[in-house]
Amino acid sequence: MRRTQCASVYLKVTIVTESVHKHAIEDAGKEELTRFTTTSASDIFHHLRMLVNHGDPVTIFSNHGRSFMVSRLLGVDHKSCCLYFSQSGNSEANRQLLNSERTVFTCSPGGVKTQFLLTDVTAVDYDGQMAFMAPLPNEVTKLQRREYFRIQMPAGIPVTCTLYDYQGGAAITLQVYDISLGGLSLVLNARIPGFEIGTIYNRCELDLREYGIIPLVLKIRNQLVTRTTSGAEQRRVGTEFIDLESRAQTLVQRYIAQLERERRAMASSRDD
């Protein structure tokens, strides 16, 4: 089996909104794309493994888009920096894929379109089945319906965020209402002062339970006053992550994916 030196592969994940046409991605400002880019091989490995675990069908376009087939991602090898995916039942589609200079992969886990390119595809045996193998992609693009997929925290399993520079160096711990790759919203009593729009809190920690504690810089983006079932007023404060490190971004993404899998499993059990 052919091996590829992982150190020589430049890896990145780019996350943009669906409102950006795919042909405009290359023309977008480099500074804007940098906000959503990681060059960590570990981050890419976890991202692709999440797609493997998700198990959704993947559509593969080859031969300059004139041929396509449906496949599934079978595995990703961190040591060899290779991705494995199933062959089609159509031998002609398999042949054209092998002869194609590059292939385009698209899938939509959770309604989020993911796209990437692979080259140098070869046929291999993978755990007793005929499959394809290729070096990991140089770039993965996620096109989302909104800038970020936001998910609400599950009831009964609180996630908290502590701001250590809240006011005058005092710390305050608040419950997280929902979270995305771009930020989170906090729930607090309407009478608690501070949190004016535009305020930046530089010393924050998000406790993602089994995923660990993540250091954050938060910027207040919006506020919403709501009422609880008992009639008490509370504020929901929307925040943006500022310069979130790639490792932290990966942990947040993995946490969101876990919540989505759990919700799907619960929905499936109710339907049975």
How would you explain this protein's 3D organization?
With 272 residues, this protein is α+β, with helices and mostly antiparallel strands. It folds into two domains: 6-144, Electron Transport, Fmn-binding Protein, Chain A (Pnp Oxidase, Chain A, Roll); 151-271, Thrombin, subunit H (Beta Barrel). It is 20% helix and 43% strand. The chain has a seven-stranded mixed β-sheet. The chain has a six-stranded antiparallel β-barrel with strand order 13-14-15-18-17-16. α2 runs parallel beside α4. The N and C termini lie far apart (43 Å). The relative contact order is 0.13.
How does the SSE layout of this entry go?
Blueprint: E1 13-17, H1 30-34, E2 37-38, H2 41-54, E3 58-62, E4 67-71, E5 73-77, E6 82-86, H3 91-99, E7 102-107, E8 113-119, E9 122-126, E10 129-135, E11 140-144, E12 151-152, E13 160-167, E14 170-179, E15 183-189, E16 200-207, E17 213-227, E18 233-241, H4 246-271
Parallel strand pairs: 1-11
Antiparallel strand pairs: 1-2, 3-4, 3-7, 5-6, 6-10, 7-8, 8-11, 9-10, 12-14, 13-14, 13-16, 14-15, 15-18, 16-17, 17-18
Keywords:
43% strand, Thrombin, subunit H, Pnp Oxidase, Chain A, elongated, 272 residues, disordered N terminus, 2 domains, seven-stranded mixed sheet, alpha+beta
CATH architecture of the largest domain: Roll
How much of the sequence lies in strands comes to 35-45%
The side-by-side strand order for the widest beta sheet comes to: 2-1-11-8-7-3-4
Tell me the helix content: 10-25%
Radius of gyration: 21 Å
Q: What is the fourth-level CATH superfamily of the largest domain?
A: Electron Transport, Fmn-binding Protein, Chain A
Structural class: alpha+beta
**Largest sheet report:** 7 strands, mixed
SSE arrangement, N to C: EHEHEEEEHEEEEEEEEEEEEH
Q: What is the distance, rounded to the nearest whole angstrom, between the alpha carbons of the first and last residues?
A: 43 Å
Mean pLDDT: 78
Low-confidence stretches: 1-37
Q: Name the overall outline.
A: elongated
Domains, number: 2
CATH level 1 name of the largest domain: Mainly Beta
Tally the beta strands. Answer: 18
Q: Give the helix tally.
A: 4
CATH topology of the largest domain: Pnp Oxidase, Chain A
